[in-house]
Write a structure and sequence with these properties.
A hairpin with a 5-residue loop joins strand 2 and strand 3 (38-45). The protein has a single domain, classed as Nucleic acid-binding proteins (OB fold (Dihydrolipoamide Acetyltransferase, E2P), Beta Barrel). Strands 1, 2, 3, 4, 5, 6, 7 and 8 form an 8-stranded mixed β-sheet that branches. The chain has one helix at residues 59-63; strands at residues 19-27, 31-32, 38-45, 51-57, 73-77, 80-83, 95-98, 104-108. The chain is built from 1 helix and 8 strands. With 117 residues, it is mainly beta.
């Protein structure tokens, strides 16, 4: 049975259990903010063309370094969704996916050669 994916536009900070299909568009290099933890920015895009910001913090940057490759397509579930603070938002009511220990990430591919022998 084909999984039911929730589109990014339907995710918000009240969403607890979900499964979505996303592609990692850009993935920045890890950065250090003064007096704050290290972070890495991502941008996710779903099949409908909707995008949502994403972030990794501290040790999760290394933990998920190979699990989220630029231009990779993934099934993502149960990552934390949080409201983007107004000073960082590019539009009203913007949300971000925070990849942490709760997140479940599975690569999706249709290229049989990518799976190996």
């Amino acid at each position: 049975m084909k999984p039911e994916y929730k589109p990014l536009k339907e995710l918000n900070d009240k969403t607890l259990k979900y499964k979505t299909k996303v592609k990692v568009i850009p993935k920045s290099s890890p950065q250090q903010s003064p007096n704050k933890p290290r972070y890495q920015r991502l941008l996710f895009k779903d099949d409908e063309g909707f995008t949502m910001k994403g972030a990794l913090f501290d040790s999760d940057i290394e933990k998920y370094a190979e699990a989220l490759e630029r231009k990779g397509e993934y099934e993502l579930s149960n990552a934390m969704i949080s409201a983007v603070p107004p000073q960082h938002a590019s539009k009203p009511n913007e949300y971000s996916i925070i990849i942490n220990a709760r997140a479940q990430i599975s690569p999706l591919t249709t290229d049989a050669t990518a799976l190996g022998p």
